[in-house]
Amino acid sequence: SISILNKIILEASEKTEMKTSILICIFISLLTYFIPNEIARGKHDALLFFDGVCNLCDGFINLVADYDSQAKVKFGAIQRHSELMQSYGAGRYAIGGEEELSTLVLILDGQVFVRSEAALRTMALLDSPLKYLSVFICLPRPIRDLGYKLVAKYRYSIFGQTETCRPPTPKFQQRFLDYTGPQDDPLPWASAQIPPSSALSSSSPSL
Fold first, then answer.
1. Which tens digits make up the pLDDT trace of 49-84?
2. Closest residue by Cα to residue 149 from 118, 194, 107, 195
3. What pTM value is reported for the model?
4. For residues 60 and 104, is the Cβ–Cβ distance under 8 A?
5. Which side of the chain, N or C, has fewer Cβ within a 10 Å radius?
């Protein structure tokens, strides 16, 4: 009868939907597992340059320091490392460059990554569960960077600026590129100068 036929069709439809949901979950799980491992596989010499007076950037650096148990990532304030950034071909993002203070800059095995790519590839180097957030690298870059630039544009007005930094510990200090030993400046990026007002405008977003 028609009612029996409808019941069979409905049951078949429900089973199909369940199988589809299971396959989607498996696919997402595989991506979440493999993407961070693939990004981090064989990677060394990760250098992360950031805006030394931005509270949001400072918070991100603290997050990386706390969840990078293998100390894969070294830090440096953009305001202090223009020459080093230039040597890696990232001078346009350093002080005096065309896009100064416009983005996080990650140098990973000699390759330069910026904006959302820099943030997500950094996340892939961290401990679980934070490294799994790097799965968002699967999203199209224009979409990722649009969100990045929007947050970056208003970072100072929302998160503010800082002239003081996280109270240092020897272990934390050693993560900085300009650390030379116990006699070194206890605040590795304390000499980073707050950029002029022109650098804080919407034309120079950073994160």
1. 999 888 888 889 999 999 999 999 999 999 999 999
2. 118
3. 0.73
4. yes
5. N
